[in-house]
Write a structure and sequence with these properties.
By secondary structure, the chain is α/β, with parallel strands linked by helices. The protein has three domains: 276 residues, TIM Barrel; 73 residues, no CATH class; 130 residues, Double Stranded RNA Binding Domain (2-Layer Sandwich). The protein has 17 helices and 16 strands. The strands form four sheets. It has an eight-stranded parallel β-barrel, surrounded by nine helices. Strands 11-12-13 form a three-stranded antiparallel beta sheet. It has a three-stranded antiparallel beta sheet with strand order 14-15-16. α1 runs antiparallel to α11. The longest helix is centred in the C-terminal third of the chain and has 25 residues. The two termini are 45 Å apart.
């Protein structure tokens, strides 16, 4: 096991921001940078200095912050063809960004030199060396990103190497081999990286993309050969299908290969929290099946697997979930066995014997419910409610007397008007409330909340964050049974609930009731503790 240090270079705020549907505000970029610094990242690339005012605003704002671990890098390109460095606007913007590190990219592939830049091979080499030397003369640490290096090397090894030599001779502090098109294979990355390491004494880094689903594998292949600098993004967000995923590379390097990547090894336990934070700031939904940090990364469904994990966790888990800040989840489905129910009961704080008749009764009820169309893998809260009912530990917080929903469409104009009325019995009192919304379920949700909030103020904290519908027997057409899944959150915890009925409104009501009651059960548990 090696203890060699790998410098992690995060480009979430620049390359990650190029992902479809992602846009960070300048303030959000500062918040992400501060979290990356706390996590222990060595370099944070803040943006393309000559690209847009928002990136320049970030560089202005970040100077007001005191970072403990990371150096901020501004990104740019080599000078333009036939322009002196001191007259180039891009290089001037890099100096204006006033960061300790400047990262510039240059061309390694003759195809790009002659067809994209439309200049000569000799001028391209001069552009590289002039730009690196200019920035070094201004006291900058210079990281040179050799764009399209692997494709360029395959086309002309001599020219690709001469481009690196131009940067190295001009004083570049690190030569980063960029697998820009994302199509190389690990053995190619290893062979070419090895050739570079033999030719240069300057530290070598790797920057990969994920177009062949090999971004992480290619980065690890380069490190295995001797690269000491890895570029990527949190959650792998980036251009096209994304960049090398630092959320996977970092734990692989630290836990599997023994490298040092962060200022403190213990910071790795904050990886999932960092991943979630970046998703939130980027305003995109977290990918639940993401390795290491996803909700499903340590989720177990098959009964035999759950039994194995219960006895020896490493029998079905490649690392301890806690080492990256994640946790084990036991899924409930038709594949569940007694171990699933037993461990789920333990999660709930229930004192239950694995061989007890109650466990068998839960399994019996589960089998019947799933025959009826219920699905609990994404509705953990509804399953916990089911257990409580079987164990006679369920006490309803309210009782439905009636609800009604109306949808009014007037004329040819856009949109419909939806109204709902709910009548409940709460603590012996009859309560009625009306609600309006964008649709019938939204109106019903508002009416239910308005009826309960006087008795249970915590209901105001609960927000419905996702709603999905599945038709279970489409051959029945409009009479088909419908499954509704609802995801709710109180800002701290997120939970899923399910409802099933031939009537989509009734199925939605079931899921809404479970969602609200689950929140109230959580509050009861807090009081007991």
């Amino acid at each position: 096991m090696s203890t060699k240090k790998i410098a992690i270079y995060d480009t979430t705020l620049r390359d990650g921001a190029q992902a479809e549907g992602v846009s960070f505000s300048a303030i959000a970029k500062v918040q992400v940078a501060k979290r990356l610094d706390e996590f222990g990242i060595a370099y944070i690339e803040g943006g393309f200095a000559a690209s847009n005012p928002k990136d320049m605003e970030f560089f202005r704002l970040i100077k007001k912050e005191t970072l403990k671990n990371a150096k901020v890098a501004a990104f740019g390109s080599t000078r333009r063809a036939n322009i002196k460095p001191e007259e180039d606007k891009g290089l001037a913007a890099l100096l204006e960004a006033d960061t300790p590190v400047c990262t510039i990219f240059g061309k390694s592939w003759l195809l790009h030199v002659t067809e994209v830049l439309q200049t000569t091979p000799e001028e391209n080499l001069a552009m590289i060396s002039d730009s690196v030397r200019f920035l070094k003369e201004h006291g900058k640490e210079v990281i040179y990103d050799a764009e399209h290096f692997f494709d360029g090397y395959k086309d002309s090894p001599e020219y690709a190497m001469s481009a690196l030599k131009a940067a190295a001779d001009a004083g570049a502090d690190c030569l980063v081999l960029c697998e820009t098109n994302g199509g190389a294979l690990p053995h190619e990355v290893a062979e070419i990286t090895s050739a570079v390491l033999k030719a240069f004494r300057t530290p070598v880094g790797i920057h990969t993309h994920n177009d062949g689903e090999l971004g992480v594998a290619n980065a690890l292949a380069a490190v295995d050969i001797g690269a000491v600098h890895v570029q990527g993004t949190i959650n792998g967000i980036g251009e096209r299908v994304g960049n090398c995923n630092l959320s996977s590379v970092i734990p692989n390097l630290m836990l599997k290969l023994g490298y040092s990547c962060l200022t403190k090894a213990g910071n790795l336990k904050q990886l999932r929290a960092l991943s979630q934070f970046v998703y939130e700031q980027a305003n995109i939904r977290a990918y639940t099946k993401q390795a290491f940090v996803g909700d499903s990364a340590f989720a177990h469904k098959a009964g035999m697997h759950v039994d194995g994990v219960r006895k020896v966790s490493r029998s079905f888990e490649h690392i301890a979930p806690e080492s990256v800040g994640n946790s084990r989840r036991i899924l409930i489905s038709e594949l569940s066995g007694a171990s699933n129910v037993f461990l789920k009961a333990i999660e709930m704080g229930l004192d239950l014997d694995r061989k007890s008749p109650e466990v068998r009764e839960v399994l019996k009820q589960l089998e019947q419910m799933e025959k009826d169309g219920y699905e609990y893998e994404s509705a953990d809260a509804s399953f916990q409610m089911l257990i409580k009912k079987v164990l006679k530990k369920h006490q309803s917080f309210f009782e439905l007397k009636s609800f009604s929903v109306t949808v009014d469409k007037r004329g040819k104009g856009p949109g419909c008007h939806s109204e709902a009325n709910v009548k409940l019995s709460v603590e012996g009192q009859s309560v009625s409330a009306d609600g309006t919304g964008d649709g019938p379920v939204d109106a019903l949700n508002h009416a239910l909340r308005d009826a309960l909030v006087k008795f249970y103020p915590v209901i105001a904290d609960v927000a419905l964050i996702d709603y999905s519908v599945r038709i279970l027997d489409p051959e029945e057409a409009t009479a088909a049974k419908t499954r509704v899944l609802i995801e709710s959150s109180d800002g701290e915890k997120t939970w899923g609930t399910v409802g099933v009925s031939e009537n989509i409104i009734e199925a939605s009501w079931e899921a809404l009731v479970d969602s609200v009651e689950y929140k109230l059960f959580l509050e009861e548990e807090k009081v007991r503790k």
